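INFO worker-7 received task bundle
INFO bundle size: 2
INFO processing item 0
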Amino acid sequence: MSAVWMRLRSEVRARWRSWLGLALLIGLTGGAAVAAAAGARRTETAYPRFVQAQNGYDLVTGGFAGNIDPGRALARMEALPAVAQWARVDVAASSAILPSGRVAPAPELMAVTDVRGRAGFRLNRFKVISGRMADPRAPGEAVIDFPAADREDLRAGSVIKFVIGGPDARPVRLAAVHIVGIVASPGQFPAVGASAAYGSVYVMPAFVRGNGIRPSPGDASLLIRLRRGAAGRGAFLRQLRAAGLGGVDIPEVRQAQTAGIQRSIRLESQALWALSVLIGLAALAIVGQSLARQTYLDSADLPARQSPGDAQQAVSASLDPGKAHVPDPGVTSPRPGRRAPGTWSGQPTPAARTAWVA
């Protein structure tokens, strides 16, 4: 056992640099492959985790048939047993004047708000990407969702003027707001199959009160979180029909919207999976070559061994008199009584016998 430890210590002293380099190579390539795979997995689950973290809605109701009173319908839907949380979103202004002077009519860019301060703060909470959150008591502050900000080239600090009242109202009243933050919220991500022409600026309840705006219930919508989540949608629809509100539109359902958003980010996740596989294959090739080279270098320390062909040649030379060595005439002959090298002596040489047995 002591001989084994002695050999091991000798190998460690002689080879520790190459072993360390090989270990670092395996660690770096393996870590890169695992990191790419983890990134792909997190990209696939990013939006569902975001919805859960921001207390996202399960569905949105809005749009009423002609025989349904919007105000009463909203109140009755809020009280349905299947509803756990709700937030009413009203339209405060439908036309905007951008910093460039261009008019952006509805639905390109509208001012929306929740006069009770629930939407964006308790239900379907905002996540600030740039800037800061607006103060609910400040009538001149607002935030905007990031797809609309990108489309309209708006940023924190931009000033937007909204037309108060209908487009034909005279005299025209304008109310300016400062964009203090760019936000993300569930339902406002680009999705496959969704219209990209809709954008919202979220003004504060103080904006509505300060400008004397009276939101119309017919333009309002309800963000609803169900008690049983997606599993409670069937019960909610049955209760809606039982209440005589079967004609109320449900334009957005979280499951369908999540599927569209997942399809829009599928390319990124697939690219990360492909990167992980390529790194893994490259790592296997590099490590394999390194191991082969290290094995070859280690084999150089072993003693050289005689090949079977050399042993056979030695046996043939010792047993076949016809292959006896004939001295060159220019070479001095050995003294009498001594055999010249390579001549037949009648018995195989010890080296030949050993090679024959081997």
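INFO item 0 finished
INFO processing item 1
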Amino acid sequence: MNKNQCSFNYNFSIGIESTFLILLCALLLICGCVIYAQDNRAKLFFDEEVTFKSGSNEIFGILTLPTTEGPHPAIVLLHGSDRAGVDSPYYKDHSYNLVQSRFAVLRYDGPGWGGRSSGSPGFETLEYRTQEAISAVKYLQSRADIKSDAVGLWGISQGGWICQMAAASYDQIAFIIPVSGPGVTPAEQEVYRVEMQSRAMGFSEDEVAKAVLIRRLMVDVFLIEPKYEAVNYDQAKRLGEGPWNELIELVYPQELIDSGQELGSLNKIFTAIKDEPWTKFLHLEQVLPMFKSLSPEQWEVVKLQFRSLMIVDPADYLTKVYIPVLAIFGQDDTTVPVAKSVALYEKYLREAGNKNVMIKIFPNATHSIYVKGEFAPDYFKTISDWLRGLSLE
């Protein structure tokens, strides 16, 4: 079923009632409304194209609104690092399910994505993305059909960090729903991801160790104070001869290395190992073209940007979140350390004195909260029931 078209999931006999329904459907189509069938019930809502400013960028979005009388509470959907836009089925599914809780739902294209938002796609700091999320909230709060004190954030993966950061820095956000939002730093999350995805692929212990060692070195190359130096030396010694030794000399130099030399050596090492099976989850096919396109001066800028990304610590933000939190995780997530993230959410939010917290782990669910290719049973119901309990309508 195309969710952008009218659809019905019931039968009716020819007569006055059916004639009225046909006319109503035609009117709704003319007005741009959408009828979306879910659980054998027809729910009415409509999509409105909108734009809002974030810094110098004009952001294009689609606001899905209930046809019930407003003003409505609202949710802003925040992408993961993929930055999939308004046409992504994943975000459409969230819009058309969550609107049934009588919340308006905003999804949007990131800068330069989809051809409708201004700006250029590429590396973004989490600080920029946080300001973008706050701009989206402020835009909704400016509308007469939205309850200005009832606008919250839903964010998947990297969007979970953005939920934390935005809620800590802007006190007019009503609630947050981080989904697979890490409780650890991006540096730790990335190392975990490489290890778990390599294990899931069936690599040997030595192959996993090689991949994890390279990923930790790829973190430390950006940091002024290396995070993994001791463990990296130990692991390299255990593994013996290999490209990791050359990379260690580069990342932990005895003498100052010229930026051009550093960048050239990185490109040489990564090119030499890119076809090794165990590098699959290092995504060198994406890293190398970017590195090879950089000048030494640009490399210094990139290092500064990635440094700021790697050290973002949820402890600095969740301890300042005082609003309702629904944190959702998938038990089989190979991207985020679920057990550790749950423990840290509980610790940091307890330190904040926040008692309005619900943490839900869906059995057998992935990072995207899928079970066998479908959303986990009761995933949307869990969110809807929680939202209803906030009494924001």
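INFO item 1 finished
INFO post-check item 1: Residues 42-181+313-389 form a domain with the Rossmann fold fold (CATH 3.40.50.1820).
INFO post-check item 1: The longest helix spans residues 126-141.
INFO worker-7 idle
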